[in-house]
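Objective 1.3, modelling of assemblies. Example input:
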Amino acid sequence: MFLWVDDKVGFATPVLGSWNPFFPIHAEESNIYQEFYGWPQVAETARKAIASMMHSSELGNDLQVQQFCYGQLISLAHVADFKSMVSFAFVDFIVPTVYSSSPIMITLYCEGTPNPLKISIALEELGLEYKVRKINLFNHEQKEQWFLDINPNGRIPAIVDTDENGRELNIWESGAILQYLVDRYDKDHKISYPQGSKEYWQMTSWLFWQVSGLGPMQGQANHFKMSAFGDYPYALNRYVNETRRLYRIMDKALANNPSGYLVGDHLSIADIAIWPWTTAYKYSGLSQIDEFPHVKDWMYRLLARPGFEKGRNVPSPHLYLQLNELSDEELTKLGKERSGWIQEAMKRDAE
Ligand SMILES: N[C@@H](CCC(=O)N[C@@H](CS)C(=O)NCC(=O)O)C(=O)O
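Predicted structure (tokens):
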């Protein structure tokens, strides 16, 4: 990748192969680039490159600068013939050329189930590039040693990224991954709120509510509805009733927030963490969503966002909304067909 930056005017030109469009980037008074459409970390790389060049008293013809891009060390940031480029360009221009020999990318380990979908949706909403490695749950790939080396808990999602020193980072547990993505890549708070703000703590509260409450409770409800062989009315009622209670809490919160999001005035990881689970309401024993009109409205409104549309179909077409159209009998039949792997996974987990 090549990146040309005009420090004064506030334009950056990423040159990817022969593709060479101009993107406006917002330069604040401090001249620190805050935002580069969908690519804040590239702007940050550019800022660092400029800063290090400006501090370099001897700008030789073959200046080499080590920089980071997408969290990975750019093997060689090479400013060829820097002096002549400056004189060649407008007098005010600083034109660092930064290239990466290996494109840096997050790898997402996933399948089209609710927990991994949170991450693909967040990545899409952030406009980040990422690689997808589908994990075949039916073949218990999540329990294979190579994957346990990434996530010792043997569950999806997990991601692998690279830290600022070029070291590999494995992050697992969907809530932790969401927090990591916004901490590192959401500097302009597209899907989060500034740390320490009231909204930040509300968002964090809902995130924990989802990972410790809604996810496990609804997960148990769908286990007893769809996967348990035998009839366990006590367990099914307990978990479905708890799920219903949690949906009621959420319905009330949405009714009380005029923005239509769970927290503040825009989308956040609180909405993203919950959304994939609500699309699976019938799978979890809630016969219809009309009982929670604000949840229903919110669910379909988020569905219309391109990031949700793209993210929910990773790594394969999203199924859960369609499953809500099935009759109880059809769902039970489907559950019986699918539950074999869950029984087998339970057996292995118990060993
Ligand atoms: N608390 C975990 C739950 C992860 C989880 O249970 N993932 C499911 C898919 S949605 C899974 O990997 N199931 C496979 C198994 O149970 O072996 C998280 O939020 O990431």
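Residues 105-350 form a domain with the Glutathione S-transferase Yfyf (Class Pi); Chain A, domain 2 fold (CATH 1.20.1050.130).
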